[in-house]
């Protein structure tokens, strides 16, 4: 018990010293920046980034260059060196494809949401152009330039509008891409306006309102589910805090987990239960979003 108390005291003192040194370095840098601004004679002086900003920038560039999924292997190598075992390396390598799949799903979601926002912007701008007296084809061309467009998803529709082709059909084909489903409503409004002479601007206003309401509903649902996501993430990282706490108390949990039969059994069982819990939490959240 005395050794544990001494270890905790040394650890706390080391952390306090490190925090003091970091605070002193940052305060010194801020003082230099203030002095440069004071003696600049009223001119604009760029003091440059702080050491913390430079460090964060380097980490961000390294993260973009390496990829988020490879940090799993890096963490496995670090734990392998600390625990003198190859088990963390195997686990880190197994986590690379999982994290890559998660990253691809996140990027696909961002692209899908970007397309949905572009469709909403297109409908609003197109309604304004038609209300200003533009013909539907010319209004679509102008709205594409003003709204930022949908990239390849809208190229066929623009070509049809420019050369007198089947604009609703081209819009229906473009709506097959994830996030561009709102173009089906635009195609329906276009077809009704051309075939029956109905007001295109009024239909576009209603479509724009419906798409905005749907986007706001998704955002509200995502905000309500953020608490569940945060709870699942906290429960997922709790074992890491347990390992850090055990190391701080001098229990050497890595040696127990990686070099004893009971520890390996607990590690495998914990990993299975951890993975099952995360899978179940993600399944519940996705089910709520789909509903």
UniProtKB/TrEMBL annotation:
Coiled coil segments of this chain: 204-231
Identify the InterPro entries for this entry: T2SS_GspF_dom (IPR018076)
Q: Which Gene Ontology CC terms are recorded?
A: plasma membrane
Report the subcellular localization. Answer: Cell membrane
Topology in membrane: Multi-pass membrane protein
Q: Where is the Type II secretion system protein GspF domain?
A: 123-244
Q: Which Pfam families match?
A: T2SSF (PF00482)
Q: What is this protein called?
A: Type II secretion system protein GspF domain-containing protein
- Source organism of this protein record: Streptomyces seoulensis
């Amino acid at each position: 018990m005395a050794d544990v108390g001494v270890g905790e005291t040394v650890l706390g003192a080391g952390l306090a010293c490190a925090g003091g040194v970091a605070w002193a370095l940052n305060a010194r840098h801020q003082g230099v920046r203030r002095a440069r601004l004071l003696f600049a004679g009223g001119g604009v002086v760029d003091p440059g980034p702080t050491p913390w900003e430079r460090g964060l920038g380097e980490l961000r560039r390294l993260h973009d260059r390496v990829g988020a999924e490879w940090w799993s292997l890096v963490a496995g190598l670090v734990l392998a060196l600390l625990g003198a075992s190859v088990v963390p390396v195997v686990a880190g390598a197994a986590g690379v494809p999982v994290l890559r799949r998660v990253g691809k799903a996140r990027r696909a979601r961002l692209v899908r949401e970007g397309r949905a926002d572009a469709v909403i912007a297109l409908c609003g701008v197109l309604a304004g152009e038609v209300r200003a007296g533009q013909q539907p084809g010319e209004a679509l061309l102008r709205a594409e330039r003003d709204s930022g467009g949908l990239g390849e998803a809208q190229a066929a529709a623009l070509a049809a509008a420019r050369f007198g082709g089947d604009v609703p059909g081209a819009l229906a084909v473009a709506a097959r891409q994830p996030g561009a489903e709102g173009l089906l409503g635009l195609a329906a409004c276009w077809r009704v306006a051309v075939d029956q002479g109905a007001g295109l601007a009024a239909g576009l206003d209603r479509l724009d309102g419906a798409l905005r309401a749907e986007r706001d509903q998704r955002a509200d649902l995502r905000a309500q589910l953020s608490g569940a996501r945060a709870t699942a993430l906290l429960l997922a990282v709790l074992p890491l805090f347990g390992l850090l706490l055990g190391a701080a108390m001098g229990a050497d949990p890595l040696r127990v987990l990686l070099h004893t039969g009971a520890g390996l059994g607990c590690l495998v069982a914990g990993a299975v239960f951890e993975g099952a819990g995360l899978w179940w939490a993600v399944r519940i959240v996705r089910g709520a979003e789909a509903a």
